[in-house]
Specification:
The structure holds two protein chains of two kinds. Chain A is an alpha/beta fold. Chain A has 13 helices and four strands. Chain A has two domains: 264 residues, no CATH class; 94 residues, D-Maltodextrin-Binding Protein, domain 2 (3-Layer(aba) Sandwich), CATH 3.40.190. In chain A, strands 2-1-3-4 form a four-stranded mixed beta sheet. By secondary structure, chain B is an alpha/beta fold. Chain B has a single domain, classed as Rossmann fold (3-Layer(aba) Sandwich). Classes of the chains: A alpha/beta, B alpha/beta.
Chain lengths: 390, 247
């Protein structure tokens, strides 16, 4: 009997069993869809709130007769609450009943003393908005003074023109872009984790491994069949996540409208490259997980080791969400770091901006790791310990 | 036929060396049931695992149906039907699916596979429940499917490791009846047990093992004569604890 024949039989049997296992359905389809729906809902609300500009309460201490609406546009979302002293207003800010306290003093110039909470995003945003407003007001005064003195207006000598160079395809403009690669990596791993302990260590524990190894099928074929089955579950978990996000982007709803402002349009080649990247990643994950499960004495030990491994796997994936703030996104080492490289490349692919120079290292490193762990897994299956270490 | 030649197995547990099986010789021939009799931990399971090629002997060897367990392991596995101590099956497969799976692992497919499965189901009288999920079967039903799995490829040699352990009297009866019918079909049968009643009912020959060593081998009459004991049980006890049994 050839290795290929045995592999096919083991693979098909594992698929059949997994298709009847509710845990697989939950881990590779239901939970990813639920998580995507949850994230779309939460981020949709956040994005909508940002777009609508939040209501800002401002406590204000001003000299008698000062027109406190002078620098606050009538159309703005700010609500002004006069207070008697700075301390009274500061307490309102600390109690989150106001976002800013402004104390105005006039002695020729006007001084604005502003109190805010750096830890509260709306408070910090409000103080920045006030700063911009006062700068604009000062510029207006300069212009008037120059005009009154018949002097040339050089205040707009240097001009800034902003252009967004994001491509129109992919999920450009969506804040979920930084989260999606993390979710794909998460479900690639979690999907496999739900079955691998049962698939390998479980066979030892139940005693079915012995009857399987007595059959003429080669042990390498048994290992390969199980790895391929785990790969399928990992792949389905990832693909469900990806498909869930793209499906959400096509739904016409106020929440998704703000979350996916440019809709979704990803090129065919980028879809293919994303799938290839996910396949290489799940090959690495499946071989690694089967190796660990084959080494474990029982399901419990396998689950413990895989649980600890989750942290190691997910840390780079978490880092991929914030790498854009570090300037390291184009560093060479990023594309040679397992998991991180896949997450960054998937993000670039869904933004429509991945290059072959990035894809090559990711696919190479994933396939090398998959080959190494495949060898380990096959060696473990050939050893007597696969049966005796229980 | 099964012939072992000074077969031994030593395990390493940390710095400790454990000799689980020590230079065992016995021969089992077609049309006979050969019992491996010994207490728990005597080395019976290790011996059967070596014969089934899932573990390798440290020294010595064995031939099954003329094939060496060292150089012809694949052919040995084609020639044996192995039943382990547990009746573990795949719970989310039906009995028939499980038999088809193992049949396919032995290289059968299409109508030949169907015929083999049907034959194994019929031989173990499993028709009524073989389309149920294994998880929903009773212990006795599971044991019948386990036996069907072991014979789906119609092997000439059956190696059964404590096949009645943990079974109730009805389920045990099924196993014993099956072994008797297999003997009539000229199969070579080696089964391990520590149940004297089973040995007396089934065994044509027995090999008594204690602490990995053969203490006696032959027909039951030969063993009783060897120890000058009136019953198989006393013969067994006198071989493994000679100081406690008077002649």
């Amino acid at each position: 009997m050839t290795t290929g024949t045995g592999t096919k039989q083991v693979f098909l049997k594992e698929l059949r069993e997994m298709a009847r296992d509710k845990r697989v359905l939950q881990a590779s389809i239901i939970m990813p869809i639920f998580m995507v729906a949850l994230f779309v809902f939460i981020f949709g609300i956040i994005q909508t709130s940002i777009a609508e500009k939040p209501q800002v309460e401002i406590a204000i201490v001003s000299p008698p007769g000062f027109d406190i609406t002078q620098f606050i546009p009538e159309s703005s979302q700010e609500t002004l609450t006069p207070v008697a002293t700075w301390e009274e207003g500061a307490q309102l800010v600390r109690d989150k009943q106001a976002q800013l306290i402004i104390e105005i003093k006039q002695d020729g110039d006007t001084t604005y003393r502003v109190g805010y909470l750096e830890s509260a995003p709306i408070s910090a945003m409000a103080v920045a908005a006030l700063q911009n407003q006062l700068t604009a007001e000062n510029l207006k005064l300069v212009k008037e003074t120059l005009k009154q003195n018949s002097l040339p207006d050089q205040t707009e000598h240097n001009k800034l023109k902003r252009e967004n160079l994001d491509k129109d395809d992919g999920l450009a403009g969506s804040i979920i872009v930084s989260l999606l690669p993390y979710l794909i990596v998460l479900w690639a791993f979690q999907g496999g984790m739900s079955v691998v302990a049962d698939l390998v260590a479980g066979e030892k524990e139940r005693g079915t491994m012995e009857t399987l190894l007595v059959s003429p099928v080669r042990r390498a074929a048994v290992a390969l069949g199980k790895i391929l089955a785990v790969m399928v579950v990992c792949f389905v978990g990832s693909l469900t996540t990806l498909a869930g996000v793209f499906l959400a982007a096509t739904v016409k709803h106020p929440l998704t409208k703000n979350l996916f402002p440019t809709g979704v349009s990803i090129g065919f080649l980028h879809i293919i490259f994303t799938i290839i990247t996910i396949l290489t990643l799940v090959a690495f994950f499946a071989t690694l997980m089967v190796t660990i499960a084959a080494r474990a004495r029982n399901i419990r030990e396998a689950q413990t080791h895989l649980g600890l491994l989750t942290f190691l796997i997910l840390m780079p994936a978490v880092f991929s969400q914030i790498i854009g703030f570090t300037g390291l996104e184009s560093a060479t080492w990023v594309y040679w770091t397992p998991v991180l490289n896949a997450a960054v490349v998937i993000k670039n692919l869904i933004l429509g901006s991945a290059a072959m120079s990035q894809l090559g290292p990711v696919w190479t490193i994933n396939l090398i790791l998959a080959a190494i762990f495949l060898k380990f897994a096959m060696q473990l299956f050939r050893q007597e310990e696969i049966l005796l270490r229980v | 036929m099964v012939i072992t030649e000074s077969i031994s197995k030593q395990f390493t547990d940390g710095k400790k060396q454990i000799l689980a099986v020590n230079s065992i010789n016995f021969t089992a021939i077609p049309g006979e049931i050969h019992a491996l009799l010994g207490v728990n931990g005597a080395g019976k399971t290790t011996l059967l695992r070596m014969l089934s090629t899932v573990i390798r002997p440290t020294t010595g060897t064995a031939t099954l149906q003329g094939f060496s367990i060292d150089s012809d392991a694949a052919k040995v596995r084609q020639s044996i039907g192995f039943l382990s101590t547990s009746t573990a099956l795949y719970g989310r497969l039906t009995g028939r699916e499980l038999l088809s799976y193992f049949g396919s692992l032995y290289g059968f497919n299409g109508s030949e596979l169907k015929d083999r499965v049907q034959s194994a189901v019929a031989q173990t009288k499993s028709e009524e429940f073989c389309d149920q999920l294994c998880d929903r079967m009773s212990t006795g039903q599971k044991q019948r499917i386990s036996i069907a799995r072991a014979i789906v490829h119609e092997p000439p040699i059956l190696l059964f490791d404590e096949p009645t352990a943990g079974l109730d009297i009805l389920a045990s009866q099924t196993v014993l009846e099956f072994l008797e019918s297999a003997r009539e079909k000229q199969k070579t049968i080696v089964f391990s047990t520590h149940n004297m009643n089973e040995v007396e009912r089934l065994a044509d020959r027995a090999t008594i093992i204690n602490q990995g060593e053969v203490k006696g081998t032959g027909t039951l009459s030969e063993i009783k004569n060897l120890t000058s004991q009136p019953t198989t049980e006393l013969a067994f006890l006198s071989l493994i604890r000679p100081q406690e049994v008077s002649a």
